[in-house]
Amino acid sequence: MAVISSDILTIDSSSTEPTVDQMSYVASLTWLPSLTWGAPGLSWTGVADPRRLKSWLIRQKPAHIGIYDEDGEPIGYAAVLREVRDVTDYEDSEETVTLAYEASIAFGMAAGDAATAAVVFGGVSTANKPARAWLSTDEIEFPDGEVRVGETAMTFSLQKTIRERITINLTI
Q: Residue 74: which domain range?
């Protein structure tokens, strides 16, 4: 019997040695907003803490921080600066996961007054340069629709002389 372990899950295989990296398989699963703790067809067997697996799955999805005006119209999208951090308190008895998404908006990237910000999934850059820190509304597409999560009020002005660093703690 082979045992594959990590701090996220443990998988036992009594028939043969695993030939596939189990974490790569988990990464290939598509996360949907409707994924719940007891989703049909998913088994949490062998998972030490389902929150750790759900956190890991969500952190595999590319995201941006969307900045919106007072009418809810997008001003632009900031790239998440670094790896999304899991800041969940695993010692509590709740079933929630808290992830920290951080972005920086540099001088002169955009103009306007921001009213809200949200973590946004589903965006694909159409800009010529990959990994840009800021995408205007015409430099990003949402083939399957924009998925805004954790929208929060955040008032600041985007101008040539103002720089902002934003962190959104998303609890799901």
A: 63-172
